[in-house]
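Title: Prediction job returns without error message
Component: structure pipeline
Severity: low
Priority: P3
Assignee: unassigned

Description:
Job completed but the reporter wants confirmation the result is attached to the right record. Sequence as submitted:
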Amino acid sequence: MEWRSEGILLSARRHGETAMIIQVFTPDHGRHAGVVRGGASRKTAPILQPGAQLDVTWKARLEEHLGSFAVEPVKSRAAAVMGDRVALAGLNSVCALLSYALPERDPHPDFYAQTLTVFDLLGESEHWPVAYLHWELALLDEMGFGLELETCAVTGSTKDLIYVSPKSGRAVSKMAAGEWADRLLPLPDCLRDPTADASGLLDGLRVTGYFLKTRLAQGLEAALPEARARLVDVLGRRA
């Protein structure tokens, strides 16, 4: 068995004296693991940094085997984020959530492209936090837990949508909320519009975090990665 693709490095850990076991997210083969022979060497170790874009060739005798990777660098993102604590936290959160949520070897080509967009913004654009917020929305959607934020769940209206129902994951208008308003989640503009400013970012992350915890994490029966909480904390301190 052999295939070649592009991939985002999610994690790398030592395997024996000189090898590394890595996880990459590829458009055609999803989250995929394999051994990099000599991955711990001075030549290769600097390439194997989370968030790095790699050209990878995977080989194994049988498809179900762990197999081995040959890797070549395409784009490193270490320099762009190492001097920016918030961007580094964003990169770590994306890598951790992908490792946590994606089924192994299940392709998600469109979501891969959106992930690349977020990575390319990290450390390069001040607008990346809103792009990250919409990436979390996309992650929920890819995992089968998408939110419906375009119309009111009660009236069908598209106006004055300022809440999200924690039960249905659907938008609720100001008029329809009534006495239930204090039980609903906020719906900031930036959660519906990726071009909006980041003034409601923390409220948006509160919403995605709620559904990541109550739907995705409960489905996987495992707590969310700490990297996600650290990112929210860093963003809160900056705000």
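Comment from assignee: result matches the submitted record. The chain has two domains: 2-76, 79-238.
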